[in-house]
Specification:
Number of helices: 10
Number of domains: 2
Helix content: 40-55%
Order of helices and strands: HEHEHEHEEHEHEHEHHEH
Mean pLDDT: 81
Radius of gyration: 20 Å
Low-confidence stretches: 1-10, 26-31
CATH class of the largest domain: Alpha Beta
Number of strands: 9
Shape: elongated
CATH superfamily of the largest domain: Response regulator
Distance between the termini: 24 Å
CATH topology of the largest domain: Rossmann fold
Structural class: alpha/beta
Largest sheet: 5 strands, parallel
CATH architecture of the largest domain: 3-Layer(aba) Sandwich
Strand order of the largest sheet: 2-1-3-4-5
Strand content: 15-25%
């Protein structure tokens, strides 16, 4: 399956989950108003492939935006301080379902409501390790959606870097403000077997990115692994620019970064 196909498969899973949830919400709300989805996204983009396919999939299922369904779009744009306000606003609007993009968003939704169903999409994190759900088999609470194996892939990314750069001895992992420890631990474990030292470069605001890459060069880091998350995803273009500027081999967690690298 090609990468676009994988993207669309993810969208299909989200749509099936939403359809299951909306079947109950729409019936209960039919006499009052159209069903309402609250979408907590990271970046507002008219060419967002996932969102375009998401809306197309809803239409195929008979849900037409503006006719029998409404979507409230809110974007946090890599700014954690705005997430609480955005989420609380959607809860006050009494949305039937919340769809979240990024682990930061699903965690904000979990804190904001225990009654509105939350569908985590594109979370980039293991929801069990992060304490978002109880287990994959029995998530419990009001949260469902897609799990991620990004933490498990962290070690594999280091292995790939080592294959490309056999003399690699030091790697830096670029981690955003909401990154959990699992990815770093997996990478450090892989590093021991590959005899590669793994260091962490934490970034909390946009200006930290420049500092992080300068620090990597100063410390003679051989390559960078970008840990997935909403913050780094929003700043994908800037991260790619800095990697190219400082001539540092860098491995990314998603197609977003590759798209910028090719543009």
């Amino acid at each position: 399956m090609n990468l676009i196909g994988k993207r669309l498969s993810v969208v299909n899973v989200i749509l099936i989950t939403l359809l299951f949830l909306l079947c109950f919400s729409v019936e209960a709300q039919q006499s009052k108003r159209s069903a309402r989805i609250g979408y907590i996204g990271n970046q507002n983009s008219s060419d967002d492939i996932m969102m375009n396919e998401f809306r197309a999939g809803l239409r195929e299922l008979g849900y037409v935006e503006g006719r029998n369904i409404a979507i409230e779009y809110r974007y946090w744009e890599g700014k954690l301080e705005t997430l609480h306000e955005i989420t609380e606003e959607l809860v006050r609007l009494n949305c039937d379902v919340l769809v979240t993009s990024g682990v930061e968003a699903v965690e904000a939704a979990r804190k904001a409501t225990t009654t509105i169903p939350v569908v985590m999409a594109f979370s980039g994190a293991d929801p069990v390790r992060r304490g978002i759900i109880n287990s994959l088999a029995q998530p419990g609470g009001n949260i469902t959606g897609l799990a991620s194996i990004n933490a498990e892939l962290s070690g594999k990314r280091l292995e790939l870097l080592k294959e490309v750069l056999p003399k690699l001895s030091r790697v830096a992992m670029l981690v955003g403000p909401a990154a959990g420890p699992a990815g770093l631990k997996e990478t450090e474990a892989a590093g021991k077997s590959l005899r590669v030292t793994v260091e962490s470069l934490e970034v909390k605001v946009r200006d930290d990115l420049e500092v992080a890459f300068k620090t990597a060069v100063k410390d003679r880091i051989g390559a960078v692994i970008v840990h997935p998350g909403g913050f780094v995803g929003f700043h994908a273009k800037r991260i790619v620019e800095l990697a190219e500027k400082h001539r540092l081999p860098t491995i990314y967690p998603s197609l977003t970064f590759s798209d910028w690298a090719r543009s």
